[in-house]
Every structure is written in C-alpha cells, then in structure tokens.
C-alpha cells in the first residue's frame, strides 16, 4: 500500500507505452491519498524530435485517465479514495515547483538530475524537499545501458509513425 500521502510524477506521456505504464502504476502504488500527474504542455514540446507526430495534450491526458481508471478498483479497497490530479507542465518543475503538499517524486533513472533540480528549487522557495523514488528504465531486451539509448521511447514511436507516413506519400 502507499508509502506517501501525495506522490507526483511527470512527463510527456506521448504514445503511452509500457515504460509509462510502469511509471504510472508504481506511482499509484506509492500514493495513499493523492497522485499528481504532470503532463508536459505544448509550449515545451515544440523542439521535440518528430514533434508533428506528438499526440495532443488533450489526447495524452485522456489516455492517462483511462489507463489509471483501469488500475483503480471500483469498490472495496482503500485505493478507491485515491485522488488523481492532472496538471499541465508549463515550466521545468511543473506542479512540484508550486504545490507545497507533495511528499514524493517518482522519476526514472534518466531523469535523476531533474529530481535533484526540483528539490533544489523547492528548498530555494522555502518548501520541503521531496523523497525521490527512482524507477528503472525499461528496454526491449530487459537491460539498460548508461546512455539509455536502448530504452522504450516515445521518440522512437514517433519516428516509426513519421517514416510510415513518409512511405505512404
């Protein structure tokens, strides 16, 4: 059951894949009362590779809500009372930079530096630091390298979509 009252997790969550699902599932498992999901807004995505293949913010939020709803029991369990709040990330920290009542931040190994940045930012603003919970990066072969080049990736998914679209022309 949950280790923290309020847990935050953030990302682009584009073309929701198994790595995202594990990150969201673990985040839900850790939260006792509230899960805050930060979803990167369009303004921060203009320079993403294959940006033209990005799902809209609204679609990404809808898909996250549908996935999370499947994980939450309808009745008879404490998770039923869990609140899942979704915020648009419009700056480097997202909701972790302005919501004080957060206990933990779930990150992947490749975003470790971001967790440190968030805590430094919060401390400068007079807020408490967050417990950092790191989830391993998922790769198709099950092993990761230090540069994360073999990880499951929304960029790779967008690239495949882009190439298929190009082939059709």
From TrEMBL:
InterPro entries documented for this protein: Cyt_trans-like (IPR004821), Rossmann-like_a/b/a_fold (IPR014729)
GO terms for biological process, alphabetical: coenzyme A biosynthetic process
GO molecular function: dephospho-CoA kinase activity
Domain (Cytidyltransferase-like) ranges: 9-160
PANTHER family associated with the record: BIFUNCTIONAL COENZYME A SYNTHASE-RELATED, DEPHOSPHO-COA KINASE-RELATED
Name of the protein described by the UniProt record: Cytidyltransferase-like domain-containing protein
Species the sequence originates in: Babjeviella inositovora NRRL Y-12698
